[in-house]
Design a protein that fits this description.
The protein is mostly helical. The chain has one domain. A two-stranded antiparallel ribbon has the order 1-2. The protein contains 5 helices and 2 strands. The two termini are 21 Å apart. This is TusE/DsrC/DsvC family sulfur relay protein. Keywords: Cytoplasm.
């Protein structure tokens, strides 16, 4: 697995730049990842990211947008506002998780 340095931390990533080691992530690193893709984190953003990480820990795979909306209770429209264009992919990237199944 390749590694890269983000916010002074060496982390393992896949070929697309998604982190591959769950335990290497911190909220500080998440903020740096968000800044790299032009997202300024707010409490609403962190709510979605924390849900994604806890759901991943419980189920072993990155939640889809539909799961975040139905189980996480964050409306799809709001997710598109918080993470424009490709919310599931952007949330996974910021949360340090693999890209959700079905994402291109």
């Amino acid at each position: 697995m390749p590694t890269t340095v983000i916010d002074s931390h060496e982390v393992h990533v896949d070929d697309e730049g998604f982190m591959t080691q769950y335990d290497e992530w911190t909220e500080g690193l998440g903020g740096a990842l968000a800044a790299q893709i032009g997202i300024e984190m707010t409490d609403e953003h962190w709510e979605a990211i924390r849900f994604l990480r806890s759901d991943f820990a419980a189920h072993g795979e990155t939640a889809t947008l539909r799961r975040v909306a139905t189980v996480g209770g964050i409306p799809t429209k709001q997710l598109f506002t918080l993470f424009p264009k490709k919310p599931a992919k952007k949330m996974a990237y910021i949360a340090g998780l693999p890209k959700p199944r079905g994402c291109v």
